[in-house]
Write a structure and sequence with these properties.
Helices cover 80% and strands 0% of the residues. The protein has three helices and no strands. The chain has helices spanning 2-24, 28-48, 52-77. It is elongated.
Length: 88
């Protein structure tokens, strides 16, 4: 019983911290990675509730699909920093 409570507290802390990180981090790439951590920790909560099907769908649909789509969108829309060239 104590191990389940300790595991729940640990993953609840991970979920809250990574969710706050998604909102507060300025870099969009790090925000997407923290979103993946938050979604995976929610899947762990589903496993702890003995809802393995929901956990599998969480990982397959959200982490596997939505996060990959966000990652491609970030990579394709990210602009490279241009170097300033001075005409002397």
């Amino acid at each position: 019983m104590a191990y389940e409570t300790l595991t729940f507290g640990l993953f609840a802390l991970v979920t809250i911290a990574s969710s706050l990180g998604v909102v507060l981090v300025r870099d969009i790439w790090h925000s997407a990675l923290l979103l993946g951590v938050a979604l995976l920790s929610v899947a762990v909560h589903y496993v702890m509730l003995q809802a393995e099907f929901l956990a599998a769908m969480q990982v397959l649909v959200y982490v596997g699909g939505v996060l990959v789509l966000i990652t491609f969108a970030v990579m394709l829309t990210r602009q490279a920093k241009t170097e300033e060239v001075s005409n002397v």
